[in-house]
Amino acid sequence: xxxxxxxxxxxxxxxxxxxxxxxxxxxxxxxxxxxxxxxxxxxxxxxxxxxxxxxxxxxxxxxxxxxxxxxxxxxxxxxxxxxxxxxxxxxxxxxxxxxxxxxxxxxxxxxxxxxxxxxxxxxxxxxxxxxxxxxxxxxxxxxxxxxxxxxxxxxxxxxxxxxxxxxxxxxxxxxxxxxxxxxxxxxxxxxxxxxxxxxxxxxxxxxxxxxxxxxxxxxxxxxxxxxxxxxxxxxxxxxxxxxxxxxxxxxxxxxxxxxxxxxxxxxxxxxxxxxxxxxxxxxxxxxxxxxxxxxxxxxxxxxxxxxxxx
Amino acid sequence: xxxxxxxxxxxxxxxxxxxxxxxxxxxxxxxxxxxxxxxxxxxxxxxxxxxxxxxxxxxxxxxxxxxxxxxxxxxxxxxxxxxxxxxxxxxxxxxxxxxxxxxxxxxxxxxxxxxxxxxxxxxxxxxxxxxxxxxxxxxxxxxxxxxxxxxxxxxxxxxxxxxxxxxxxxxxxxxxxxxxxxxxxxx
Lengths: 310, 187
What we know:
The complex is a heterodimer.
Chain A: H1 13-57, H2 60-99, E1 103-105, H3 114-118, E2 127-138, E3 141-155, E4 161-175, E5 184-188, H4 191-201, E6 205-207, H5 212-217, E7 218-222, H6 225-231, H7 234-243, E8 252-257, E9 260-266, H8 282-301
Antiparallel strand pairs in A: 1-2, 2-3, 3-4, 4-9, 5-7, 5-8, 6-7, 8-9
Helix pairs in contact in A: 1-2, 2-8
Chain B: H1 2-56, H2 61-74, H3 83-107, H4 111-115, H5 117-152, H6 156-163, H7 183-186
Helix pairs in contact in B: 1-2, 1-5, 2-3
């Protein structure tokens, strides 16, 4: 497998893979397989133990307690597998990103959700988990991308906590090479009543655009009617529609503020995890490279480097 | 009593139609003003481009004169509430845009002009202004459609004719002008 061919800009990664990464991933894969075996053994033992306790004692409380303790032990051993996959990711992602001239932070410490919340691109939440922050420049377009999982905690009548994942996906912002002062938000169309309710959350007026397909899929709100149309040209709307047909961007919402384009792409996928392939399988790295290629697709498909203003 | 309620409901209904028509007309006027703001930018930019172009295009007097004439006509005052005058104003600005496109096309024959840094910057600014005009035009046409529908569809058409609100003309581009202006193609 020649990784450099997968992404034009990926210079020198093949050499790094052959000289250093391959042996590391081989070693980690061995550990992962071993950890899997241990996990499965522990799981079988735990099930057998809890089952035996139930059949022998016929005591529900005792069975529940033993089940709970067994689950903790099983989770501990499952955590070891996850830790190995995380180590593999930490071996691959920083080097892949640096080969592309990007910076990678596994815990997304430099990223905030303030702008995304303010623009109503993400729902309200109580807990958040941010990871895989990638930042850099593609053809002079600065960007920052990270993965977010947002959880809303609610309490029932009896005070029981319920945790609901309200957003999981990618959040990113790109430099937008047009001058504008206002705020324009493009959210998903949520039928008449949904739009009416969500309309109260957005600042500015509703902007009615000419493209019927775009109007069908999105709702646009802006503090400046002319500026919204300056940003959302017919060509740009067409590009957004094509782009939003791809899987990752299927639930795309975006906004323009302070010279930047903010995008929220809700999807259920856990990104940059190698799609569950074996760690020493070249497909593990291939799938990660393809996900990184998505960044280039955004810039290319949306023509963010375009200098013409019409 | 019932008669009074019917009159009241009818009065409220008529008032709502009236308020909507006034709202739509004001929105249309706002959109027209936003076009004028952008057209003014182009109007102010044209002399700069002409000054630079004149240095190199001595033999293209007809092209340059046409731009000057159209600039003069397009900058005239007009009554924003009068559809005929608005139509003439928009048409004059379309003519100015055509004249400018022609100027850029002719400028292609002058390599020295193409490489002029000031001309390149002026062209970039022109392109930026055209982008804003295009956006303002779309806003205006959108509000014109809303107003036109209200003015032509019963029952608001009756109120519109009573209070003298008329549909406004669209600001449409000619087929040849639909293509975006790319400065680099010309210079």
